[in-house]
Automatic annotation (TrEMBL), chain A:
Annotated ranges, domain CTLH: 61-118
InterPro entries to which the protein is assigned, alphabetical: CRA_dom, CTLH/CRA, CTLH_C, LisH, Ubq-SigPath_Reg
Protein's name in the database: CTLH domain-containing protein
Family annotation (PROSITE patterns): CTLH, LISH
Tree of life domain: Eukaryota
Species this chain originates from: Bifiguratus adelaidae
Pfam families: CTLH, LisH
UniProtKB/TrEMBL annotation, chain B:
Region (Disordered): 1-32, 158-195
Record organism: Bifiguratus adelaidae
Signal peptide: none
Comp. bias intervals (Low complexity): 16-28
Listed Polar residues bias regions: 171-181
Domain CTLH: 472-533
Pfam families in the cross-refs: CTLH, LisH, SPRY
Official protein name in the record: Protein SSH4
Length: 219, 672
């Protein structure tokens, strides 16, 4: 039974959209959740005042998480790891993948700073053995080492591992660490906002198989 | 009848009041109303609508939610009422939860089938005669098996019913609520004939109804169906395979269920025990066992084999089954597979990639005396289907979680942009500033030490708060706060100053803001009236005998003045909007003027108009209207994403995307 895909015109679609009732408080909660989990303490405080929404956690608990995160963002991985251990040593002890990614980030920062000797020393002492023990980390380790072969400060297509030098890599590491801290505090690890986007992507994929409709693109 | 504000009683009471009093109005409030809308309109109002009814003793019953008896009664009312009820039901989700929780002990949640429906001629006739009986029975959520309660099936029922009861645009403006005659007339138009499947499958209602019994009109001659439609016995003489006989259920399985499950208990193995359980399409020959034909699937008791093709050779599948065994069949629309259970034990997937045609549960037999009972959830299942459904739901939710956001170059940047634009949209200027400050810190880090990509650069410039943006946000915020604090005059003044287009236009939002002001005046009048003060009388009502009305019994010096305010403002509103044909305006006028009919408006059925949440809602909508008048989107990007997801999911469910039955925005994302 093959049928041609049904088409929904924009007009009809807009009518359907207009019919959806949105509870503004739900959206506010979604944003508050994002601010808290992502560690925007000041913004969360202001948001609580402006939206009249009480945060469901003590905003003070965000502070330390923020410091740690800023340290990662600033490339000071050593300081970040120290702070995490002060907070709760279990976090790194029980999470080998996170530990590896932090060490990897440390190596990246050394290479970025052109401290080549230190980088090599650190790599052989801290990372190489770990890479041998856990082969799933090995290829990542090798990619990181490949950074040494390229000029760290010259961007360009020629460098196949330049993604490691980008700020997004620090963000990614910081996020992983942030999630682990949250988990250790029995809070939700991930904000719900990305889930909403995933839900949108997923549902549009599902419906696209059956009908043609005005899709919403996320920028 | 439910205790909806009824059209008769208020008028009677209004009359009895006026006959016993020397003055026609029973209070200064009603007098005020009379002045606002004029005498003739006032009289018309009194006889036509409920607004002059005294305060109800208690909440009207329909606001308590899902009691099917009430629903049934209400279905003879206007479609607009039905919409209200549906809305209330949606809003009172907690009631639904309590409702389903209370019933979850029963596999068939809610009222048992107190009459067999559909295939029973008498029942079908009854249903055809009385709309008020047939529709609610089909749609009362009380008739859904418990394992479906957490899926979107229920929501789909509500929606499709809402769609089908949506009045035509022409009806919408012309009819005023609640006369019984009109109610039943319009309901007749929507009567569905339950006994004619070909007709009913075309309607949305029938599309999503569940199979509930065996269809005695859709059986092979050798089979006899019990009175309740759940038992089947082979009564003929059997000789060969040609004597095989199958009966189909009364309806196909709606894919909207996501997963559908039913069980069969073998009562007697008869001579041979050639019994098969499965599903098949509508046009599959009935003189065959399930699975012997294309578009038919079956699991047979005599050899434990599964069948799904024309060839009569089965494939090894499960154990044999016979008298006393309970066999279950589950159709999984998520991966389009079928599994079976025996005495509560899952036997594994039997069929994959099942056809996309509507499938009917079916039982087949082939020798004399074979007898079985089918269970669509009316009785407790042997197999823990709820758990199976929950597991499937978790699996799907997890798969969505794992979905990479590959379309986004940098998810963090996108997320931040989304939040930032939301803050700008709402005019949360302080939050936006704090947020931007952090963005700046982050992007400075990104900029000076790290190879910034083009994307990062673009993102950071978007996160700067331009002075004009900030000013605009501040203004919108002040207006919002003024409205939230009930300082409507201040809000109106600011609106006039900064957004004159909007405040002079004939917009709905302007009307709503003005309505807020009226409500506020009433509130002031109430407070003035309730403070014990002098005996100064109000000139509008000399009748001190009516002492239930606080304003007249305990007037203050300020009383007449605030009172005059209410009247004057109300008259202005009436003059400006009385002829406005927009239903929202007419409804709005009715609501705010009805406040005057209660001796304590704040405790009346319209009391929510005084709530801060009501003002908040208006403030939010005003904010959106301001943005729209300025050429910006009415909805924030976040809200757009939400609404789009809702509609897409809705359409998925309607289209029968099995997975969509287990995904729920509100539950999975917004509930925290």
């Amino acid at each position: 039974m093959t049928t041609t895909k049904r088409v929904i015109e924009k007009e009809e679609w807009d009518r359907k959209l207009a019919e959806v009732k949105v509870n503004k408080e739900d959206l506010n909660r979604l944003v508050m959740d994002y601010l808290v989990i992502e560690g925007y303490k000041d913004a969360a405080e202001k948001f609580s005042i402006e939206s009249g929404l009480k945060p469901n956690v003590d905003l003070e608990s965000i502070q330390e998480r923020m410091h740690i995160r800023s340290a990662v963002h600033a490339g000071d991985i050593e300081a970040a790891m120290e702070r995490v251990n002060d907070l709760n040593p279990d976090i790194l002890d029980t999470n080998p993948q996170l530990y590896f990614h932090l060490q990897q980030q440390r190596l990246i920062e050394l290479i970025r700073a052109n401290r080549v000797n230190e980088a090599l020393e650190f790599a052989s002492e801290e990372l190489a053995s770990r890479g041998e023990e856990q082969p799933e980390f090995l290829s990542e380790f090798e990619r990181t080492m490949a950074l040494l072969a390229f000029d760290a400060n010259a961007s360009g297509l020629a460098n196949p591992v330049s993604d490691l030098l980008q700020y997004a890599k620090r963000q990614q590491t910081a996020q992983e660490l942030n999630a682990a801290i949250l988990e250790s505090q029995s809070q939700e690890r991930d904000p719900k906002l990305p889930s909403l986007l995933k839900m949108l992507v997923w549902s549009q994929q599902q419906l696209d198989e059956r009908m043609t409709f005005p899709q919403l693109e996320i920028l | 009848m439910p205790r909806l504000p009824s059209p008769n009683t208020p008028a009677q009471q209004g009359r009895s009041n006026s006959s016993s009093d020397s003055t026609p109005g029973s209070s200064s409030f009603t007098e005020a109303l009379r002045r606002i809308i004029g005498n003739s309109n006032f009289d018309a109002l009194q006889t036509q609508t409920f607004i002059l009814s005294p305060e109800p003793e208690s909440e009207p019953s329909w606001s308590r939610g899902l009691e099917s008896s009430h629903l049934r009664d209400l279905f003879v009312l206007e479609p607009s009422h039905i919409r209200d009820i549906r809305r209330l039901q949606r809003e009172e989700q907690s009631n639904i939860d309590m409702f389903s929780a209370g019933l979850s002990n029963w596999p068939w949640a809610g009222r048992g089938g107190d009459e067999s429906e559909g295939e029973d001629d008498n029942a079908a006739e009854e249903a055809a005669v009385s709309y008020s009986l047939s529709i609610p029975m089909c749609h009362s959520p009380a008739r859904i098996p418990a394992y479906l309660m957490r899926t979107n099936y229920l929501r789909h029922l509500h929606r499709s019913h809402r769609d089908s009861t949506r009045p035509l645009p022409t009806m919408r403006n012309s009819q005023t609520p609640s006369t019984l005659d009109r109610g039943s007339k319009s309901s007749k138009n929507k009567k569905i004939k339950v006994d004619d499947e070909n007709v009913s499958t075309r309607t949305c209602e029938a599309d999503c109804e569940l199979p509930t019994a065996l269809n005695r009109r859709d059986r092979a001659v050798h089979l006899e169906i019990s009175a309740d439609g759940l038992g089947v016995v082979f009564v003929g003489q059997h000789k060969s395979d040609r004597d095989a006989a199958t009966v189909r259920a009364n309806r196909p399985i709606p894919p909207q269920t996501g997963i559908f499950y039913f069980e069969m208990e073998v009562v007697s193995k008869g001579v041979e025990g050639f019994i098969g359980l499965g599903v098949c399409a509508k046009d599959v020959e009935l003189a065959r066992l399930p699975g012997w034909e294309p578009d038919s699937y079956g699991y047979h008791g005599d050899d434990g084999q599964k069948f799904s093709s024309r060839s009569e050779k089965g494939k090894e599948y499960g154990p044999k089954y016979t008298k006393g065994d309970v066999i279950g069949c589950g159709v999984n629309f998520v991966d389009r597979s079928i599994f079976y259970t025996k005495n509560g034990k899952h036997l594994g997937t039997a069929f994959e990639n099942i056809i996309k045609r509507p499938l009917y549960p079916c039982i087949g037999m082939r020798s004399t005396g074979e007898e079985a009972k089918i269970n669509f959830g009316q009785r407790k299942f042997k197999f823990d289907i709820s758990r199976y459904v929950d597991e499937e739901m978790l699996r799907i939710q997890e798969s969505i979680k794992q979905l990479p956001l590959t379309t986004l170059e940098n998810p963090t940047v996108s997320m931040n942009r989304l939040v930032f634009s939301y803050l700008v949209h709402l005019g949360f200027v302080d939050t936006a500033k704090a947020f931007v400050k952090r963005m700046d810190q982050d992007s400075q880090l990104a900029g000076c030490k790290i190879l910034a990509t083009e994307q990062d650069g673009a993102a950071s410039s978007e996160h700067t708060l331009l002075p004009e943006t900030e000013l605009d946000m501040e203004r919108r915020k002040s207006i919002r706060l003024a409205i939230q604090d009930g300082e409507i005059d201040r809000a109106l003044a600011m609106l006039n100053e900064h957004y004159p287009d909007l405040s002079t236009s004939n917009s709905l939002i302007r009307f709503r803001v003005l309505s807020l002001k009226f409500v506020q005046l009433v509130s002031i009048a109430c407070m003035a009236g309730s403070s014990p003060q002098s005996d100064d009388d109000i000139d509008m009502n000399d009748d001190t005998a009516v002492n239930t009305w606080q304003l007249s019994s305990k007037p203050t010096k300020k009383g007449p003045a605030v009172y005059a305010d209410v009247v004057a403002f109300g008259q202005n509103l009436q003059a400006e909007y009385g002829e406005d044909a927009r239903p929202e305006v007419q409804q709005g006028l009715l609501e705010i003027f009805s406040l005057l009919a209660y001796n304590d408006p704040k405790k009346s059925i319209m009391g929510h108009l005084f709530d801060s949440s009501h003002r908040m809602k208006v403030a939010e909508d005003l904010n959106s209207a301001i943005l729209e008048s300025d050429g910006r989107p009415y909805r924030s990007s976040l809200e757009q994403i939400y609404t789009q997801s809702e509609v897409v999911l809705d359409e998925c469910i309607k289209e029968g995307v099995g997975k969509a039955a287990f995904v729920n925005l509100e539950r999975d994302i917004l509930s925290m």
